[in-house]
Amino acid sequence: MSLKRFFFIAITVTFISGCFYIYYSYNPSNTALFPKCPSKVVTSYDCPGCGSQRAIHAILHGDFKTAWDLNALLFFLIPYVILVLLMEHTSMIPIKYRKYLIGKWPILILLISIIVFTIYRNV
């Protein structure tokens, strides 16, 4: 492993660990540390990401039902993002599966799912 790759991995792991610590320790509902959603503030509509910070806090505390109620989309996006990152940065997932994760159709399905989710949660 090259020194550059080692530092990239070390910095990434440190950053993610720090984020986990902050989201575990501080409830986004009760502290001003976390930003409010600008879309929600301006339009009063929930964007696809609204509730994500509180949902991550709930997941880290093992409260999956509350997390689902806050933002169900996270339960689909988190595994998807992890798979894409694993494919791009490791050899755990063969590159031949790229078209199934980030090809034209998967991205279109993802985009349509996000739009439908946003409409559904605001109706």
From TrEMBL:
Transmembrane segments annotated in the record for this chain: 7-26, 70-88, 100-120
Superkingdom: Bacteria
Keyword hit for Cell division: no
Pfam families associated with the record: DUF2752
UniProt entry tagged with the keyword Chloroplast: no
Keywords from the UniProt entry: Membrane, Transmembrane, Transmembrane helix
Protein name listed in UniProt: Sll0543 protein
